[in-house]
Amino acid sequence: MKTSRINLASALILAIYPRDFNTQIAVYRLNKPIFLKRIRHSPEDLASFETFCDQTDYRKELILDVLKENDIQIGDIKVIMGRGGLIKPVKSGIYEVNERIREDLRKNLCRDVINLGGIVADVIAAELPDAKAYIADPVVVDEFEELARVSGHPLFERKSIFHALNQKTVAREHAKSLGRNYEEMNLIVVHLGRGITVGAHYKGHVIDSTQGFDGDGPFSTIGSGSLPMGDVIRMCFSGKYNEEQMLKMIRGEGGLKAYLDTESYYEVEKRIEAGDEKAKFIFEAMAYQVAKSVGSIYMVLPEALDAILITGDLANSKLFVNLLTERISKIGQVILYPGDEELEALAKNGLMLLKGERKVNEYK
Q1: In this predicted model, what pLDDT tens digit does every residue of 67-99 receive, in sequence order?
Q2: pLDDT in tens, 192-203
Q3: N or C: which end of the chain has fewer CB within 10 A?
Q4: What is the largest CA-CA distance in the chain?
Q5: Which of 361, 360, 321 is nearest to 339 (CA)?
């Protein structure tokens, strides 16, 4: 992006992160947030839309209306960062939304609402005079070493799908806090959210990671993680479940939701405080599985570990973090970066773009 004619002090960055029943947005000037909003969508509001893609104009109009109602000078928006989704594997970086990205986002939109991020960013940019739409470090960032791709059967390959944006941002922030470069450090980053992923960061590249999207690694609040494969196959052919139901077991209605009928760790903690032994047992089992993944990932790092970084919304749970840290602290220093800061991470990438500190990659 050419920045010679852009006044950085007045240029605004709009970040967009769509979820099933809300759209999170933030407006930044330089590195300061000037507006944050979670636009909620009720099931009734969304009932008339057959697919996520059909929600594009609906979410776009809501975002523009909210910005105008709150006196945001939309003409000053120069960069719109949409949360990157399920496209073809790419290297880490920033990508301007082009026709190929639009096509692949739409093609895979049925798999996750996250793909609306780049699409909505693009349609908003089309209505503003000087704005361009981008995605940064989408979930399909692929830096795996070749050994990590081997699954155990030649018909299947392990894929890199993880919380790349948050993991990469936290890793860079940690390195910066020490006066070091991310590219010279060896880290394990644990993202604890609705999905959980554990990544091995070796000198600036994530050489292996649990997947966390459709069945790999520890279970989470809504995901089942790795399941006994023979039992899953037999269930698929039992005649009791269709493909959609099986996929929901893996992601959407697995994990805490399946065991405890809630995906809220706050509610689980309240149950534990009230003496619910089953809630305590399942919560500890989730920490146990995350710790197993950390130990497994540790073994693929070629050199000594610098630190284990824990991030994501679930990292705000002192109980869960304590259960996890008790098991993994023997491996290395554990440092917390609690919170789900995708909007801030998107805005930081947008600012680096405006400053010319990161280049734009072409999606082919």
Answers
A1: 999 999 999 999 999 998 899 999 999 999 999
A2: 998 999 999 999
A3: C
A4: 64
A5: 321
